[in-house]
Amino acid sequence: MSFVLRRTEEIAVDELDGQNPRQAARLILAAARDGELEAQALLGQILLDGHGIESDPTLARTWFGIAAERGHAMARNMLGRCLEHGWGGAADPASAASHYAIAAKADLDWALYNLANLLATGRGVERDEAHALALYRRAAEMGHAKSMNLVGRFYEEGLVVPRDTGAAHRWYRRSAEAGDFRGQFSHATVLAEAGDLDGALPWLERALQGGNLNFLRIAREQLARSPQEALRQLAYAYCQRAAELGDESDRRRMKSLRLA
To answer: I need a surface site. Which of 3, 39, 169, 193 has the fewest CB within 10 A?
Structure first.
């Protein structure tokens, strides 16, 4: 039996010794009760996700807290996410920031990113874009793809640093190559604006496949307004994907774009 932690925003569990999710959940639960630290962190995640076990965000918070107090940085980060988003109890961005800060001291890239998001928007903490950029950059240098894209945005928009489109474009490319769908879209936009549609389209296709609903909704509108026909045509594919993941408003938007 082994517990596998992937380098993703959330803790993830692979099937253990070929077991199905329900069997794996039983193994994790037993190991967590026996004091296995990784199992305690994983138990919080499967309770949050309902993976092989009935979803219970409140109990997930409890297990994340147990593992966090024993020094598990990702469990601390996930406790912060529960508090930030109100999973399993009231939302408390200020407490979330405190937990992210503890995990960030352990050099956890996701905690650096999550704390930077709060600082950049002033949620739960005083807004501090310079500190946010420093954290994004620190995570980016560790290989964190989403942070790379946001460092690029700071340079592109000249936020707390001199505007530097060259630096922005380099960060977007790094983010795209590291697998972030927003970074892929940003990099594709740069290529398209430079007239390199052949280079841009594959990145837009990759962003389409990996993007979440909020991203797809924003991206489809940006593509629909493009002066380039190839990008306007791709907007419909983004609409279709959003309609699959979203609600009736997304399906209506798909129909209106098709009729336009």
So the answer is: 193
Rounded to whole angstroms, the Cα distance separating 108 from 100 reads: 9
Place of tokens 């996410």: 81
Number of structural domains found in the chain:
2
How far apart, in Å, are the Cα atoms of 23 and each of 13, 18, 62, 146? 12, 9, 22, 33
Which of 76, 106, 136 represents a domain boundary (last residue)?
106
Q: At what angle do helices 109-121 and 73-85 cross, to 10 degrees?
A: 30
pLDDT in the model for residue 18: 52
Range of the domain at 46: 1-106
pLDDT in tens, 146-155: 999 999 999 9
Q: Is residue 77 part of a domain?
A: yes
Instruction: Tell me the two tokens of residue 131.
Output: 């500190």
- What's the distance, CA 201 to chain centroid? 23
CA distances from 51 to 11, 88, 113, 145 (A): 12, 16, 25, 26
Instruction: Choose the final residue of a domain: 65, 81, 106.
Output: 106
Does residue 113 lie within any of the structural domains? no
Report yes or no on 129 lying in a domain. Answer: no
Task: Find all residues with CB under 8 Å of 14, minimum gap 6, and list them.
Answer: 4, 6
pTM, to two decimals: 0.90
10: CATH: 1.25.40.10
pLDDT band at residue 15 under the 50/70/90 scheme: very low
Q: Which of 20-29, 91-100, 188-197 has the lowest mean pLDDT?
A: 20-29
